[in-house]
Design goal:
The protein has 14 helices and eight strands. The chain has three domains: about 50 residues; about 80 residues, Tyrosine recombinase, N-terminal domain (DNA polymerase, domain 1, Orthogonal Bundle), CATH 1.10.150.130; about 200 residues, hpI Integrase, Chain A (Orthogonal Bundle). By secondary structure, it is mainly alpha-helical. It is elongated, with a radius of gyration of 31 Å. Strand 6 and strand 7 form a beta hairpin. The relative contact order is 0.07. It has a three-stranded antiparallel beta sheet, covered by helices on one side. A three-stranded antiparallel beta sheet has the order 4-5-8. It has a two-stranded antiparallel ribbon with strand order 6-7. About 45% of the residues lie in helices and about 10% in strands.
Length: about 375
Amino acid sequence: MANVQKRPNGKWRARYRDLDGKEHARHFDRKLDAQRWLDEVTTSVVTGQYVDPRAGRITFQKYAERWQGSLIASEAGERITDNALRLHLIPALGARSLAAIRRNDIQVLFKHLSDQLGPGSVRNVHDVLVRVMTAAVDDKVIASSSCRRITLPVIPDEEVTPPTVAQVEAMARVMPPYIRAAVVVLAGSGLRIGELLGLKVADIDFKVGSIRVERQRLQSGKIGPPKTAKSRRTVPVGEVVTDALLAHLAARPSKEWLFTMEEGEPLNYRRWKTEWNCARKALQALENEAAGSEGRKPFTLPHMVTHDLRHFYASALIAGGASVKQVQMVLGHASAVITLRIYAHLWPGEEDRTRSVMDAVLGGLRTGCGPVGSPTSETAGQTA
């Protein structure tokens, strides 16, 4: 029910009822303005685009917390969402009503965040905000999202620099004996650390020489499926890896989990990270000691993380002539595009191959500065 009526004070009142039967009214000086506003509102109701103007009064914090409570996501996704809301978005926007948040408010926020966080972290926060605001639009809380055309910091294209064989061997030597074989497995199979922590003894085929990746251990300690569908795979491994595992199981027999802590519990991410960091410090201490005994200045060893062993494995395969498809499959990447984005610079010989192909095609245009062959009428892909 919608109408326009003149009030005793001379104002024109336009009123309507929304889909829930609630009455809304607004006063205008001119009947024309009142009718135009009423026509716009009734049109939005009929087309399903109507948004109750009072709905946007809800604060960002209240709506975001309600939205977060309804999410179905992986543990990693939940952690990213919680960090973005709790540490950045709610402190900055929490007290504001959703309808009052403007695009420039958001741009100023991300300018501030870009001075504090890395580009990847800033984009994670932005992604969470976009999802909150999009959900608010879908729920008819606000008419449109103000989180549009926001300028974000560019993520630089940094080429992966794999560790050397000497660095991998050194890390294996300084790791505690009960998990030393884990370094060999990571370097010789390209497994992610979560996949390694989720391995069971039954996943290793010692006769064939392979590791079956069926699960991963999350940072919370829980067991979950692999990262992606392509991550569920069987990775061929050589004798160095299988021999290291046989020696490991001989020293620490287990009927279920492949790697366990000294207390007998399955090895978890926190313990692994602690041991890895201690090993790096021990390696630096050994370098300092060697430098002192040799009378030279010690140098700072590169900051090596566990994931670098995965890069080491990939770079070794590429150096050995493996194709993009093969590297993708054994690493468990969702697509070859991901493999190329990370490792394209490691495939050798493309420049020389380009030169040779073009020299063969354009050989008839030589000017005498090099060996001259018999001219032909070849064009790219054709021979007359």
